[in-house]
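Let's sit down with a protein and look at its sequence and fold side by side. Go ahead whenever you are ready, and we will take it from there.
>
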Amino acid sequence: MTAGELASAFDLSWPTMSGHFAVLKGAGLVQADRSGSTITYHLDITVLQEALLTMLDTFGIEREGAPR
């Protein structure tokens, strides 16, 4: 989604949203692509996958089809 699309979904000021975007980018959770004045954000799925796999391992939950 574009920054504007994301911002319109929340009742927050643009500077507040911009700060949140910067934190998410800094944490490696999202990637931002700029085209002119439009910034499109993409969720970095690999970070989410790693977090979920860590949770599964922490709780001893078997992953189907994955070696242990």
Remarks:
- The first strand starts at residue 30 and ends at 35.
- Strands lie at 30-35, 38-43.
- The chain is about 50% helix and 20% strand.
